[in-house]
Specification:
This protein has helices spanning 21-24, 31-41, 51-57, 118-127, 140-148, and strands at residues 5-13, 46-50, 71-76, 95-99, 111-115, 133-136, 154-160, 187-195, 200-207. It has 212 residues and is an alpha/beta fold. The protein has one domain (5-211): Dihydrofolate Reductase, subunit A (3-Layer(aba) Sandwich). The chain has a nine-stranded mixed sheet, with helices on both faces. The protein is globular, with a radius of gyration of 17 Å. The two termini are 16 Å apart.
Length: 212
């Protein structure tokens, strides 16, 4: 599949969950983890997030001090992104919205609209927008789809051992519990940074393509 090189970044609780309604508004990981999030954005030609995560976390997908800011890509089922969302008022890269279900996504002022599946959108980013590196910040369902396509090259994870979320249907790094992926995706641990004082550990993995 012709696509950009793709990295992802998520934080998980001690029980492997990625979110909690009461925690999202205030943030639940350390300032060091937030700085790591910003650092991981640098060098990417595009940043991508699912609409649910964008809305819940009030994300603007920006990188300060970068001469050519990355594209800001939002994936949604129906194309509906709130026009008053701060992503439209914060200066940054061009906004591209992918609608994966609607046949005729309504235009959103200040954004380029796309219709189709994630695979075709990734191809468009690579061939038409010349994006070589794309960084995805969730949510779990979007990362699951990237994993299904075997389109994750690097996986960054913050293990926040100070928190338990619980919940049988709480999302994991690959979304809600459902069928297995088409095949296992093997990754090699490249970086392991424990921070005992924070109760967190920063991990980075690289996809092992030669394991197929």
């Amino acid at each position: 599949m012709l696509r950009p090189w793709i990295s992802t970044n998520l934080a998980i609780s001690a029980d492997g969950k990625i979110t909690s309604v009461e925690k999202r508004a205030s943030g639940w990981t350390s300032k060091a983890d937030h700085q790591r999030l910003l650092d991981l954005r640098r060098g990417a030609g595009a940043l991508m997030v699912g609409h649910g995560t964008l809305k819940a976390d009030r994300m603007t997908l920006t990188v300060d001090g970068q001469e050519n800011p990355p594209l800001r890509c939002i994936v949604t089922r129906d194309g509906g992104v709130e026009s008053d969302h701060p992503v439209f008022s914060k200066a940054g890269g061009p906004i591209h919205i992918l609608s994966t279900r609607s046949n005729t996504p309504a235009p959103v002022r200040g954004a380029v609209m796309h219709h189709g599946n994630l695979e075709s959108f990734l191809r468009t980013l690579r061939t038409e927008q010349r994006v070589e590196r794309l960084h995805c910040e969730g949510g779990g369902m979007l990362i699951r789809e990237l994993a299904r396509l075997d389109a994750i090259d690097e996986f960054h994870l913050t293990l926040a051992g100070h928190t338990l979320f619980g919940g049988r249907l709480a999302k994991s790094p690959t979304g809600l519990p459902e069928d297995w992926l088409p095949a296992s995706r093997e990754f090699e641990l490249r970086s392991f940074e424990p921070h005992m004082e924070l109760g967190e550990c920063f991990l980075s993995y690289i996809r092992r393509r030669n394991a197929q």
